[in-house]
């Protein structure tokens, strides 16, 4: 098979699907923590490997990575750089410009980048651990290139294949590429059918019931071959919010998480979910009663991973305790699609999600500890629903009120929701008054003094 054909086929997949294929084949390749360092596009290509290390002497050296860039002669290369140090840059805008001119498709760094705006300005994709301003000069050297390297626990060889997108970075051994592509394409077809079934109204518990996607390893289903089977029309969510749920949610309709957080502080209630952040910069506030789900490590044979969603009512927020695990996801595009169709308000996960493009495109509110492409199938299973769970160091009881926005997530105990909402309203009214006063010419000190700003969050 030609390189062009391989890359075309790989470009039709995403990291989630490729990660699933590697799982089936018992191959390593999915990495966690190597994310896009600006809003860059997906990249696919072949690895040109670079090994870096700490500088241990005072001898002058060639600038990092420049010999590898100069040696590139084809348009299918992705630079894969290992050995980066926390807080120290091993990438910058000058070498980004040089790579762009050479037709290199992008760079994956097990390390840090600086001058990331320079890479963004020329449209050069960079994936890595994070950004810094500290130069590698006199701190790091290039040790070797074109050799096998270790990237986040995965061995990457020269000419292995690379795919990176919003969910992270995956490496595919060159010698197994055809196996991975064949299986990935079957997985992709099967997942597309599952999405169609969900859109048509089939319960997600039926759609996602085939353990380890057994159907993928069988002949194509009749649906894949154009079956004329009639699928049901989606009928919405029969589970409606209670009158009390609607009343409590309405109390927070004009609030945001900073105001509610201040009210919780004033009342001495712990409710701010630590390190649970929005998938994107949501413009609206998500409010709803918590439908709690607890995940545990998978048994043998593994149990259910997503059947609970058929029991979630309109307006609920799914709150998933996966113990803060970042090595496997518990939420993907099928769950996003189904939740949106059933008017579920959003999802909060103490763990990671995948298929983030679906959630972003659908504007489905997701709040998580991160994103990664590796499936939770056969790694975790549902251990319980509608019981006490922990989210970002906060205890959440079933039907507590969840308030989430671009700032994060807060949990309001249901029994104290009216009290919290009233204090939040007073806090926000005081802050509105301060804004009006300073707009009218008052100093911030005068406005704060008059409206008692320093007592707003203080415990009563």
Summarize the model shown.
With 460 residues, the protein is α/β, with parallel strands linked by helices.
Descriptive tags:
single chain; 460 residues; Glucose Oxidase, domain 1; nine-stranded mixed β-sheet; 24 strands; 25% strand
Describe this structure in words.
The protein folds into two domains: 28-172, Ribonuclease E inhibitor RraA/RraA-like (Glucose Oxidase, domain 1, 3-Layer(bba) Sandwich), CATH 3.50.30; 243-419, Glucose Oxidase, domain 1, CATH 3.50.30.40. Helix 11 links the parallel strand 17 (346-353) and strand 18 (366-368). Strands 1, 2, 3, 4, 5, 7, 9, 12 and 13 form a nine-stranded mixed beta sheet that branches. Strands 14, 15, 16, 17, 18, 19, 20, 23 and 24 form a nine-stranded mixed beta sheet that branches. Strands 6-8 form a two-stranded parallel sheet. It contains 13 helices and 24 strands. It is of the alpha/beta class. InterPro entries: RraA/RraA-like, RraA/RraA-like_sf. One of its GO terms (biological process) is methylation. GO terms for molecular function: metal ion binding; methyltransferase activity.
User: Helix count, per DSSP?
Assistant: 13
CATH architecture heading of the largest domain:
3-Layer(bba) Sandwich
CATH topological fold name of the largest domain: Glucose Oxidase, domain 1
Rounded to the nearest angstrom, the distance between the terminal CA atoms is 72 Å
**Based on DSSP secondary structure assignment, what is the total number of beta strands?**
24
Q: What's the structural domain tally?
A: 2
The CATH class designation of the largest domain is Alpha Beta
Helix content: 25-40%
Strand content: 25-35%
The CATH homologous superfamily of the largest domain corresponds to: Ribonuclease E inhibitor RraA/RraA-like
Largest sheet report: 9 strands, mixed
Spans of at least 5 consecutive residues whose pLDDT stays below 50 are 219-233
Rg over CA atoms, rounded to whole Å, is 25 Å
Overall morphology: globular
The overall average pLDDT, rounded, is 90
Structural class: alpha/beta
Protein name: Demethylmenaquinone methyltransferase family protein
GO molecular function, one term: methyltransferase activity
Biased composition (Low complexity): 220-229
Keywords: Magnesium, Metal-binding, Methyltransferase, Transferase
């Amino acid at each position: 098979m030609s390189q062009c054909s391989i890359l075309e086929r790989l470009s039709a997949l995403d990291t989630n699907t490729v990660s699933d294929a590697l799982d089936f084949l018992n191959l390593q390749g999915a990495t966690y923590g190597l994310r896009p360092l600006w809003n860059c596009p997906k990249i696919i290509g072949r690895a040109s490997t670079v090994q870096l290390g700490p500088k241990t002497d005072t001898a002058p050296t060639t600038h990092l990575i420049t010999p590898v860039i100069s040696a590139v002669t084809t348009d299918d290369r992705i630079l894969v750089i290992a050995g980066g140090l926390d807080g120290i840059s091993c990438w910058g805008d000058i070498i980004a410009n040089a790579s762009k001119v050479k037709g290199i498709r992008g760079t994956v760094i097990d390390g840090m980048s600086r001058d990331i705006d320079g890479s963004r300005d020329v449209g050069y994709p960079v994936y890595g651990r994070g950004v810094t301003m500290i130069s590698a000069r006199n701190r790091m050297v290039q040790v070797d290139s074109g050799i096998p390297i270790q990237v986040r626990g995965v061995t990457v060889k020269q000419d292995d294949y690379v795919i990176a997108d919003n969910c992270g970075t995956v490496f595919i051994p060159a010698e197994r590429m055809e196996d991975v592509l064949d299986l990935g394409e079957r997985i992709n077809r099967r997942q597309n059918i599952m999405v169609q079934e969900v859109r048509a109204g089939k319960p997600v518990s039926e759609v996602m019931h085939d353990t380890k996607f057994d159907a993928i390893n069988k002949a194509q289903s009749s649906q894949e071959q154009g079956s004329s089977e009639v699928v049901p029309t989606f009928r919405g969510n029969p589970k409606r919010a209670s009158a009390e749920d609607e009343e409590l949610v309405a109390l927070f309709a004009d609030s945001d998480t900073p105001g509610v957080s201040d009210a919780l502080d004033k009342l001495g209630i712990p409710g701010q979910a630590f390190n649970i952040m929005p998938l994107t910069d949501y413009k609206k506030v998500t409010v709803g009663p918590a439908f709690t789900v607890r995940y545990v490590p998978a048994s043998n044979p593994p149990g259910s991973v997503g059947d609970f969603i058929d029991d979630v009512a309109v307006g609920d927020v799914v709150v998933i305790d996966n113990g803060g695990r970042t090595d496997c996801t518990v939420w993907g595009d099928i769950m996003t699609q189904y939740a949106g169709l059933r008017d579920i308000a959003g999802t909060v996960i103490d763990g990671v999600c995948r298929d983030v493009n679906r959630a972003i495109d659908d504007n489905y509110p997701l709040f998580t500890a991160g994103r990664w492409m590796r499936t939770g199938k056969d790694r975790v299973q549902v251990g319980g629903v509608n019981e006490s769970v922990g989210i970002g160091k906060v205890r959440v009881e079933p039907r507590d009120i969840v308030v989430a926005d671009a700032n994060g997530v807060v949990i309001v105990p249901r029994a104290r929701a009216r009290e919290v909402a009233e204090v939040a309203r007073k806090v926000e009214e005081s802050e509105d008054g301060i804004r009006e006063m300073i707009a009218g010419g008052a100093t911030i000190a005068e406005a704060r003094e008059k409206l008692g700003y320093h007592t707003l969050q203080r415990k009563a």
